[in-house]
Amino acid sequence: MKKLSVVVAGTGQIRDVEIQPGTTAGDILHQLNLEDYLLSRGPNEPFFANAESVYDKVKDGEKIFASTKAEVGIALCA
Amino acid sequence: MRVKELGTRHAPSAIREMFSRVVRGHGPSISVVRREIPYWRERGWTRDGNNYTGWYQTPDAAFHGWIEDSWSGNINFFLYNPSAQIRRHSHWSCFAPRDGEWYLVHMARRPKDVSSGILTIERLIREAYQQ
Fold it and tell me: What is the DSSP letter of B116?
């Protein structure tokens, strides 16, 4: 088991969770009722895919971020 | 007599503190309260009404930013004086010039809050410098 602190970027609220091996980003977001969000270890790290296992990519006690989905671009942009 | 006492004086405070810790053991642990603040504030941005100013920060570069959180619910993100690396990024066409060297960053998928937008633009800057 690993403990994680999920920081909701917009409010700064911290949600503490405990995860087991194989727990996916989607599992965490669903558990926290943050389905419209994405998880990442910070601005310099990529987002976790929903089905991606988070357990082996984070350290026990680590702080990770949940931010709402956003993408730079316009209709003409990829 | 081999030893002659000349007088006494206080040991340095650091040594006194070390000995007193040995005698009394560790003091009680202090619980540090976590700050629950939005990402924009954690990154040093400031807010004036519906406008935010600060820096989009990455390990490679930082850019002055301005954000307008309009009453209609749209959040507009501006970045000042983008570098050559950003101008070479595949999303450069999403930067629309405004006054001076300010650029409006178009969002195909709009973030629901200011912090998420800052994270998105910082991620784009990081990508630009890793190309």
Answer: H
